[in-house]
Amino acid sequence: MYQYVIFDLDGTLTDPLEGITNSVSYSLCEMNIEIPDRKVFQDFIGPPLKDSYEKWFHLTGEENDRAIELYRVYYQDKGILENRLYDGMGELLKDLHDRGIFLAIASSKPEHFVHRVLQSFDIEQYFSVIAGARDDGEGGTKIAVLTDALNRIRQKEGRRAGNSRILMVGDRKFDIQAARELGTDVCAVSYGYGQMSELVGCDPDYIADDLDDLRFRITDENPFFRSRERAISKTIKVLMPLLIFWIIELGIYNLCYVAVLHFMNPPEDMQERIRVYLNVVAAIATWPYLARQYGLGKTDPAPVVTERKKKILLREAPLLVAYSMALSLGLNIIFVIWGLTGASESYQRVAAGQYSVALPVGLVIYGILTPFTEELLFRGIIQERIARYFPTFLVIPLSALIFGCYHGNPVQIIYAFLMGLALAVAYQVYGHLAASVIMHCAANLLVYFLSKQVGFTAGGPALAFGLILVAIACFISGYYIRRLIADRKRKGY
Hints:
Blueprint: E1 4-7, E2 14-15, H1 17-30, H2 49-57, H3 61-77, E3 84-85, H4 89-98, E4 102-110, H5 111-120, E5 129-133, H6 142-157, E6 166-170, H7 173-182, E7 185-189, H8 196-201, E8 206-208, H9 211-219, H10 231-263, H11 268-285, H12 287-297, H13 303-337, H14 340-343, H15 345-354, H16 359-389, H17 392-406, H18 410-430, H19 433-453, H20 460-491
Parallel strand pairs: 1-4, 1-6, 4-5, 6-7, 7-8
Antiparallel strand pairs: 2-3
Helix pairs in contact: 1-3, 2-3, 6-7, 10-11, 10-16, 12-16, 13-18, 13-19, 13-20, 16-17, 16-19, 17-18, 18-19, 18-20
């Protein structure tokens, strides 16, 4: 646990992009300089204004001073208010302050601006030291303001404020480099405006993707430890959405089934297909409930990180598809050859119902609608709750176990558990429901099509092919698990 925490301001506590963008744009317009792409303005968050104007617009001397003056004309009246506190940051600062942790600010912004920003969000009272640049802009380098902050802390706290008890928190390379030079530990936050390559290249002690990571890094308290509930209470909260889902689904199915039998009296040979269609109707009827539960459990305090992960997911979607197809096809071949599917009467009854409908209908139902519903429930809701209430190492196996048991018969329990492990890993790696939906859809579409059109035959070559596919899937699993481990390490878990 760190006793002294020094925060950068812009990009770390607050998102100042709109105010800074408008202030720079105003100064450029007044000086008849062409306004660049908005991405340039992100570079103004962190370093001193003088350096940014010189770097991007080659302004030096009096021109540079004029640009800064115009920037502050707009910023002090309007730009300073075009700012937002990151979601949950106020609660985090209050919690740290209430724990007795000494909080400070080291910002390259003029100090009176720093006070105004903190006052506007009603968080100034949490900071015992606030260090910024002088009004004339001098002393605004990160090394200067961090040195000032450290000196003020030690004036107040004396020898207790040793470097080993101090943590610098910032979102740019300037924060990391200054902390390194002054000998304090440093935690980079990736939800700010520093690119991940920039942060990793400076080798911070830790990188936090969100406020839970940051809280843990400061307090050494894992997120799930904050819940003081008993394990049985947590388990009920994890499983309750599944129970309500079942109640809604079974209720709708039985009502519709009774209505169909009463009004239509279908022949015996149609009843299997009718049950399939009614299952679809019942599943879709649960969507409003699932969507609400999913929305209640999701927060996005770090949209920059979310967007970064989304781009990675789009780039790596083919790998996910290959992963799911190799695993699902390999397992199905092995299960058929080893006689597991043929030996289970309950599985045979389920399969007969699933394959009783036409191929296009089955592909839509079991290749798209069913995966979406199950991923929304098991990954988007249940896995999120497991992560909230239980240790990290239990999240993936518990999610897979619940997913497997849901499928009822022995063959599908084993298959769904193994697939559930892969789906849970993908959801953890990419942090986005689309990852597990893509995998689940790809697996179901492939297996349903082949089972319906071709079937799986026994034989040595088929078994070898199945084992090779599973081995490929295991190799990809290892790759993803190593990524998860590396991610946890850089966060300090």
